[in-house]
């Protein structure tokens, strides 16, 4: 995932351990723009392909299976989106930009059976 962005205004670093939200492409499908947070935190980002509505549902998750999660945000096109955190999370919001929605949706459908989860490290 190409989600390593240093936001000079907020001095937050958002880093992914994987390259999942970019796949093998040279340009990122998704970029982190910034975060609203009170402390460093490791959390997960999840993207689910909803075939009935032909959209991606993206949310932040804690690090435990069946644990806390933020509300799902429906993504249907390229653009800016804000993902809300979950209770007891130091991250109250993560702002992302989807740069290639069609390729992201195709990658999640074909390479991840419709559900992708990746780990993010968000630090002050």
Assign an overall shape. globular
Query: Approximately what portion of the residues adopt beta-strand conformation?
Result: over 45%
Question: What series of H and E elements makes up the topology?
Answer: EEEEEEEEHE
Number of strands: 9
The chain-level structural class is mainly beta
Average pLDDT metric: 82
Q: Separation of termini?
A: 20 Å
Q: State the domain count.
A: 1
How much helicity do the residues have? under 10%
Taking the sheet with the most strands, its summary is: 6 strands, antiparallel
Note the total helix count. 1
pLDDT < 50 stretches: 1-13
Which sequence of strands runs across the widest sheet? Answer: 1-2-9-4-5-6
Question: What is the alpha-carbon Rg in Å?
Answer: 13 Å
Written account of the structure:
This protein has 124 residues and is mainly beta. The chain has one domain. Helix content is 9%, strand content 48%. The radius of gyration is 13 Å and the shape is globular.
What secondary-structure arrangement, pairings included, does this model have?
Elements: E1 5-7, E2 12-16, E3 30-37, E4 41-50, E5 55-61, E6 73-75, E7 79-84, E8 91-98, H1 101-111, E9 115-123
Antiparallel strand pairs: 1-2, 2-9, 3-8, 4-5, 4-9, 5-6, 7-8
Task: Please give a quick description of this structure.
The chain is mainly beta and 124 residues long. The protein starts with a strand and ends with a strand. The chain has one helix at residues 101-111, and strands spanning 5-7, 12-16, 30-37, 41-50, 55-61, 73-75, 79-84, 91-98, 115-123.
């Amino acid at each position: 995932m190409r989600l390593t962005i240093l936001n000079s205004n907020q001095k937050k670093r958002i880093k992914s351990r994987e390259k999942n939200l970019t796949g093998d492409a040279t340009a990122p499908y998704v970029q982190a723009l910034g975060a609203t947070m009170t402390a460093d935190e490791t959390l997960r980002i999840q993207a689910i392909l909803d075939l009935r509505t032909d959209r991606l549902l993206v949310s932040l998750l804690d690090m435990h299976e069946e644990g806390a999660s933020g509300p799902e945000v429906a993504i249907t096109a390229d653009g800016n989106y804000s993902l809300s955190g979950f209770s007891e999370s130091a991250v109250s919001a993560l702002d992302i930009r989807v740069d290639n929605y069609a390729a992201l949706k195709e990658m999640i459908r074909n390479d991840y059976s419709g559900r992708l989860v990746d780990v993010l490290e968000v630090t002050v």
